[in-house]
From TrEMBL:
Domain of life assignment: Bacteria
One Pfam family of this chain: GGDEF
PANTHER family: DIGUANYLATE CYCLASE DGCM-RELATED, REGULATORY COMPONENTS OF SENSORY TRANSDUCTION SYSTEM
Reactions the enzyme catalyzes: 2 GTP = 3',3'-c-di-GMP + 2 diphosphate
Alphabetical UniProt keywords: Membrane, Transmembrane, Transmembrane helix
Protein name (Swiss-Prot/TrEMBL): diguanylate cyclase
Native source organism of the sequence: Shewanella psychropiezotolerans
PROSITE patterns named in the record: GGDEF
Transmembrane segments: 12-32, 62-83, 89-106, 118-135, 155-172, 179-198, 204-228
Record carries keyword Secreted: no
Chain ranges of the GGDEF domain: 250-401
Annotated EC: 2.7.7.65
Length: 401
């Protein structure tokens, strides 16, 4: 359930916000028509800024999309011969554009000026070319397809077949790999299809400006997560901890948590298994009750800050975390490369049917300190660290005040 809610953050919320924004624009149509000239200029500025920001923050797929949409907008606004000719192929461009947008959902962000850049330029030409090829094919074989199709097919429906596939693929991609960039690409495809089917509902300038704003938000929020989230565990990082310190009041408690004998664990099972265990242990810590805020301090050390709580009141919350980790049997896939001495280690082999998995468990030690009057955060942390040291000395897998 929690991973579902986590996915919602990246997937459902941006879509809802886009829908709400478009509804507001529609409802307030009368007022924004006064700003017609400004609105018509907006996509030039916003899409250019979005492309520049996307490049700066290495979100090259959004940069490509912003640039392509900018070219599209210029083609719609310009009366130059080359663009008016292009506008005669709007069906082909629509299908090619849909294929192109969908393709961006499946490739990685790579540098624009690199060998990947050349491949992507080729991809763009091929994607657009496919739109022409599909319509040529439909025109050529429509009689045969319509005659042999089990359901009644019109020419119009046939042209839309690749779009439906594109939308389903991109939708699944956005659900499967929920992140803001994939949701932005899905939104782009949705708006692209919407514009083709309902060209008069919203002016193109409004739709493209909305997309540019979505790209800008995606880049900003992504950068925030990059700066303040720990990549391995998904927890808030040490930088986020020191950000929180700025807003802490006078009363709080801080706990330092450390996985016991983690060096030995790494040596026994390998660094990759160690990483896997760090992620799972972090997920258990993230469920701490009592309003605790969890951070990865560094390595196998974690910090939990309890604003407005004294040390005695949080002991039960921390004990729950310690117990849940102690009781957690972590199932690992058998690593065929492991040598014999490793297999003699503490891991308990599961008696599962195919014996291809094994279970391991770890424990944690916890040191707690309550902020004393006049003390700085670093001083309180230092005392929590000393308490952690005592917990280790006393035999580990316990909490010390
Ligand atoms: N897999 C993995 N290991 C890490 C990571 N960060 C730190 N470590 C390992 O964590 C281990 C910490 O070891 P020590 O500080 O000696 O402590 P310990 O073995 O846990 O022993 P005690 O704390 O005394 O119980 C080192 O082997 C680090 O390599 C990481 O991100 N991934």
């Amino acid at each position: 359930m929690s991973s579902f809610l986590h996915g919602c953050r990246y997937f459902i919320l941006p879509l809802l916000i886009t829908l709400m924004a478009l509804t507001v624009i529609q409802v307030t149509e009368a007022s924004w028509q006064i700003w017609d000239e400004i609105i018509r200029q907006l996509p030039y500025w916003l899409l250019s800024i979005a492309a520049a920001m996307a490049l700066q923050f290495n979100r090259s797929r959004l940069a490509y999309l912003a640039l392509l949409l900018l070219v599209f907008y210029v083609s719609k606004q310009s009366s130059a011969q080359v663009f008016t000719t292009l506008n005669n192929y709007s069906d082909e461009l629509f299908i090619g554009g849909s294929i192109l947008i969908s393709w961006f959902a499946f490739i990685k962000d790579r540098g624009l000026v690199s060998s990947h850049g050349i491949l992507r330029a080729l991809g763009i030409i091929i994607g657009l070319g496919l739109g022409f090829i599909w319509l040529e094919a439909v025109e050529h074989f429509q009689a045969a397809i319509i005659a042999n199709s089990p359901v009644s097919m019109t020419y119009q429906a046939l042209t839309l077949v690749p779009i439906m596939f594109c939308f389903v693929f991109v939708l699944f991609r956005a659900i499967w790999r929920a992140n803001l960039v994939n949701t932005s690409i899905l939104t782009t495809l949705g708006i692209w299809i919407f514009y083709y089917l309902q060209p008069d509902t919203f002016p193109l300038a409004v739709l493209l400006s909305s997309l540019a704003v979505i790209y800008l938000f995606t880049i900003l929020i992504d950068s925030y997560f990059l700066a303040y989230r720990d990549e391995l565990t998904g927890l808030a990082s040490r930088r986020a901890l020191y950000n929180l310190v700025l807003s802490l009041g006078r009363k709080y408690s801080v706990a330092m948590l450390d996985i016991d004998h983690f060096k030995k664990f790494n040596d026994t099972y390998g660094h990759d298994v160690g990483d896997q265990v760090l992620r799972l242990v972090a997920a258990k810590m993230a469920r701490v009750s009592g309003g605790g805020k969890v951070f990865r301090y560094g390595g196998e050390e974690f910090t939990i800050v309890f604003p407005r709580k004294d040390a005695q009141t949080i002991l039960d919350d921390l004990e729950d975390v310690r117990e849940s980790i102690e009781d957690y049997r972590i199932v690992l896939r058998e690593d065929k490369r492991q040598n014999k001495s490793n297999t003699q280690a503490k891991a308990k082999r599961s008696k599962s049917r195919n014996a291809k998995t094994k279970t391991v468990s770890v424990t944690i030690s916890i040191g707690v300190a309550e902020r004393l009057g006049g003390e700085s955060f670093d001083q309180a942390m230092k005392r929590a660290d000393l308490a952690l040291y005592r917990a280790k000395k006393k035999g580990r897998n316990q909490i010390c005040l």
